[in-house]
Amino acid sequence: MATEATGGGLEFHPMDQFIVKPLFGAGDVHWYTPTNVTLWLALTALAAIAVLVLGTRGRAIVPNRAQSMAEMAYGLVHKMIEDISGKDGLRYFPYVMTLFMFVVFANLLGLLPLAFTVTSHIAVTGVLAMAVFLGVTAIGFIKNGSKFLDLFWVRSAPLAVRPILAVIEVISYFVRPLSLSIRLAGNMIAGHAVIKVFAGFAAIAAVAPVAILAVVGMYAFEVLVAFVQAYVFTILTCVYLKDALHPSH
Amino acid sequence: MISLLQEAAHTAVETTEGAIVTDEAATHGADAATHGVDAAGHAAEAAGLPQLDIATFGNQIFWLVVTLVVLYLVLSRVALPRIASVLSDRQGAVTGDLMAAEEFKQKAREAEAAYDKALADARGEAQAIVAQNRAEIQAELDAAIAKADAEISARTAESEVRIREVRATADVDAREVALDVTAELVRNFGGNVDGAVIGTAVDDRMKGAVQ
Amino acid sequence: MEGNIGDLGQYIGVGLTAFGMGFAALGVGNVAGNFLAGALRNPSAAAGQTATLFIGMAFAEALGIFSFLVALLLMFAV
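^ inputs. structure came back:
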């Protein structure tokens, strides 16, 4: 096991940062136990609320810094839904906005030193992805009824290849939550683990400067990735929402 | 997946027992042997990938759902309507300002037009006054010139009359002087002064001279 | 060096998954490069297509992340 590999005084524990621990004392993790996950989930929610609610407290016509951040986030998601899902997608704007704010703040807060990255856990991103998948599927059937199945029956294709396309479409439809959750969690795990591995190399004096430079570079890259992954998560949600609202190709 | 984890737990526990022989590890090992899934969590903590530790999934999902519901409620009830109202207020303010600016521009244009009009009026009035003054002066001038002309012609006429008188008297005076001079000349030459002959001779000469 | 032959196979397999990540990198680079080539030909149309760019990159990257996941599963769960 890599976590137990000890060679030349090097100690790599890149995955230890993802361990779920109870906040108070030791013991089993029950479903209600406040853990470090709970703490960082709460901090994520508080950060999002701080920017979106406290930041806009002034309701200023000329915004201050926090308010323009909140307005930029609002404008970004609003425009994304309008451009991709269409005007009727704006009904689900609060839902998409919640997902975006949660993911972006969880990613960014996870980059703080000693922080716990909640979006690096498959359980968390899986719930987020299922929230999108189930919500979108429900919207599709409520809005379009059985016509929603047109999404899988490509009428523009020749009749002979339609069954094959239908199989592919169904598979790709059900892979969506999987790819959505694993993309986010995988990016987070990989980035944090790579930073940890480089940090481990800093124990050797000869390569320490290179290792520290690498950590700095990776950190900058991870800040970018944190935002891009939240953006991608949201944009894919919008694409799925468009499919649900307008299933015919 | 669970069976995989259990296997991983067993191997992990075995390695733990092999590497660090402590009482705790030994009891964990015993737990793992008896309790299965619950212990798999502990073992995975020690060795496996924390993300695949199914024992913590319930905890994470529960707190995540709580967080998401709270965030959704706060965002949809408070934050998003507020930002929307701020943005529409700003839109309104901007359009209002633009309209006000347009209005001011219109007013400025009207004021400029009024100013131009006043300027043109003033200029026209000034020109009228100038023309009127000029006409008055011209009239006065004309009257004065006419008066002067009349005076001049009157004086001319008077002068002509006097010149004519003078000329008339001058002819008579010249005849008398000529008569006297002729008579005296004739007397001095010892001639006989005959008034009638001298008179005709002077008259003849004078006719030629005057003509 | 001591250890069993199973561990050896495990580590070789994990190393092989790195190929998957490398090919995913090719895919992402392909998406970005073609976007740039298109954007340089018609810069006015580029701004509207950034969303498509990110979607394409996300799909290409997802498969690399899948191979990373396989590596993690091989390392820790098998």
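The radius of gyration of chain A is 22 Å. Chain A touches chain B through 53 residues (CB under 8 Å).
thumbs up if we can close this ticket
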